Amino acid sequence: MNIGTRLRDLIEAENMTQRQLADILHISPSALNGYINQGKEPDYHTLALLASYFHTSTDYLLGLNNVRTHSFNSLSESEGELLGIYRSLSAHTQQIIYAELKAVYQLSDLA
Hints:
The protein is mainly alpha-helical. Helix content is 64%, strand content 0%. The protein has 7 helices and no strands. The chain has helices at 3-13, 18-25, 29-37, 44-53, 58-61, 77-88, 91-107. Helix 1 crosses helix 3 and helix 2 packs across helix 3. The radius of gyration is 17 Å and the shape is elongated.
């Protein structure tokens, strides 16, 4: 299932129009229509806005999994953003970031 189908289903489930969602998220109706009907993909910021509004994950919107509910309810906004950024990195870059964070943690008073 692609992002357009997922968005269409979510909008219908909320009993709203595309224009209403576009207004709420401060994006153009034509951009939203492009995501839903023309196979266009939103940028990272817009994808995050859509996921946040519908209380779901970006993975669900992108069709990478079928779990609609958000599994990170206990994360703060900044923690969620950091996790999203981390997951968007290549595996190699993730390993580098992990090693750096681990080193910083070990040098801190928390370790």
